[in-house]
Amino acid sequence: MLKQRTLKKAISATGVGLHNGEKVTLTLRPAVADTGIIFKRVDLPQPNEILATPGAVHDTRMCSALEANGVRVATVEHIMSALAGLGVDNVYIDVDASEIPIMDGSSGPFVFLLQEAGIVEQAAAKKFIRVLKTVEVIEGDKWVRFEPYHGFKI
What we know:
mainly beta
């Protein structure tokens, strides 16, 4: 059984947003099992949380942006890549601007941050999606198809 993972301790970094040029501080904090990846805009007066799910994807022009209840966080793709690559399932990401800092333009600085914070296994099992039947979507000249397969293949 593969177990879910989170951080050992909180860690922060400061950088600049690529599109808005604003100084941004983000803090990565541990989260309990089954929390998921949650972005929180700590610069806003009202409490808000954006769960990183496909349904929260708001815009993908020039960056990947997530939105919930009118609150948006943009340029999440590099930190999401680092989390996926290191198998981190549960984390809070507090950010004090509308965009994640670009750092060096890769996921490398986020991998470094996550490794500095430390990664720990949790008691709960990881959850996976299993494709049971073929699913295909076609829009004009674009298409995607998922087919059952015993294993992992892209």
